[in-house]
């Protein structure tokens, strides 16, 4: 790849739009291409981008009205020049998104609201492939409680991490617990065996009188118990 890039820099690249042979500096970087350079030169790429925006009914792209020092970036939404660290990272050639983090988040919320009716619906659709309607129907089938412990009004959709299929709706603790045990029935079974062998039990030996029964292993309970 380096050899091809070096040869392109020396001989120049031909832009298929304007048919000019230009030095590599006149092309944007593109890591996906073999030579590491964009298909069109910077001038033609800008013109094509602007034509595409007009075709989609989007206004002309904004440009900074002030000079932007090195290590800084201008946000078109809030019209402020901020450090690069204030912009989310991206895999694009520039390495940073066009909008600063607050504006980027606000745009994301607006898109989720416009396309899905809110962040909750967007999150369910994007991650699990179901919506709030399907969530409510599944919760009703469970009787409105967590499928594991029976806590009312659970809010977490549980899914099989291997297949992606939705399994049920759990409370925060049960959902996190399954994740900590890596959805492994074997690990959960060993945990049950461990608890049974180490947990002291209160046994009723007379009305109102209990006796602590020793497990097969483990220390005796503290006085506070």
Automatic annotation (TrEMBL):
Source organism, top-level taxon: Bacteria
InterPro entries: Endonuclease_7 (IPR004211), Endonuclease_7_sf (IPR038563), His-Me_finger_sf (IPR044925)
Matching SUPFAM superfamilies: His-Me finger endonucleases (SSF54060)
GO molecular function, one term: endonuclease activity
Keyword Thylakoid (UniProt): no
Keyword Nuclease among record annotations: yes
Keywords carried by this UniProt record: Endonuclease, Hydrolase, Nuclease
Official protein name in the record: Recombination endonuclease VII
């Amino acid at each position: 790849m380096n050899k091809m890039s070096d040869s392109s820099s020396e001989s120049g690249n031909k832009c298929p739009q304007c048919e000019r042979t230009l030095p590599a500096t006149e092309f944007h970087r593109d890591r996906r291409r073999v030579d590491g350079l964009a298909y069109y030169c910077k001038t033609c790429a800008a013109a094509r981008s602007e034509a595409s925006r007009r075709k989609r009914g989007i206004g002309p792209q904004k440009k900074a009205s002030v000079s932007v020092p090195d290590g800084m970036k201008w946000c078109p939404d809030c019209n402020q020049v901020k450090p690069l660290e204030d912009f989310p990272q991206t895999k694009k050639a520039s390495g940073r998104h066009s909008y600063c983090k607050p504006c980027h988040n606000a745009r994301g919320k607006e898109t989720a609201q416009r396309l899905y009716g809110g962040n909750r619906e967007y999150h369910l659709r994007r991650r699990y492939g179901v919506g709030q309607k399907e969530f409510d129907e599944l919760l009703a089938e469970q009787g409105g409680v967590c499928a594991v412990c029976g806590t009312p009004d659970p809010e977490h959709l549980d899914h099989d991490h291997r297949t992606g299929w939705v399994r049920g709706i759990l409370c925060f603790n049960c959902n996190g617990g399954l994740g900590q045990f890596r959805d492994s029935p074997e690990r959960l079974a060993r945990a049950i065996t461990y608890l049974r062998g180490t947990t002291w039990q209160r046994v009723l030996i007379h009305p109102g009188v209990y006796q602590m029964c020793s497990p097969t292993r483990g220390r005796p309970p503290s006085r506070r118990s």
